[in-house]
Amino acid sequence: MNTQTSYRTGIHLHEHEARWFAVYTRYKREKVIRKRLTDKGIESYLPLQQFVRHYTRKVKVVDLPLISCYLFVKITKQQYLQVLETADVLHFVRPAKDLIAIPEMEIDILRRVVGESINIEADRSGFQSGDEVEIIGGNLTGIKGILLENSSKHNFLIELNQIGYSLQMQVDPALLRRMASAKKMSTFGANAKTRERSAR
After folding, report:
1. DSSP state of 186
2. Domain end marker among 102, 124, 151
3. What is the Cα gyration radius of the chain?
4. Residue 101: what pLDDT?
5. Mean pLDDT: which of 1-5, 44-48, 62-66, 118-122 is highest?
6. Range of the domain at 190
7. How far apart are CA 157 and CA 148, in angstroms?
8. Per the structure, how many domains does the chain have?
9. Both 86 and 165 in a single domain?
10. Helix (H) or strand (E) holding 82
């Protein structure tokens, strides 16, 4: 059985092939848990955004998780318990009844989103709310999503189905192409969204 078939049939924890899963963590413990997993020899990924914080006497740059209380681990079946037994890991995220692996493509999208700086005021002419569009420039080239209407900005929505989250960012209209067969995609509920303010 190949990898694509196993994703479709729900056979996700594999004896020898490491696959991505999401775990839910205690609040503000994501970085600590990442270090603990690394010490155990377990691969993990924590998408971070960089923000500037202004205080009375100084300006500080901080790295904050893109998705609060989420950490991604790439594990085999034998490493499942090692992750659960790590302090401050609460449980694996299960979008459905069974534990579902996250496709490498969705992890790749997260890596590309946090590596790209998008925060542009744009003219909304030429596009309409609900258009299915594709990014055609920059590190996010090839990513498809839905254009949302929000004041004078282009808000671009990406749905990561296995993760169970939507990412929302501002995109320069010059970097967008309307899809030929524009179909409106469904969006998750408000409790299943995260807003990517600057997509860094």
Report:
1. P
2. 102
3. 18
4. 94
5. 44-48
6. 132-195
7. 7
8. 2
9. no
10. helix 80-84
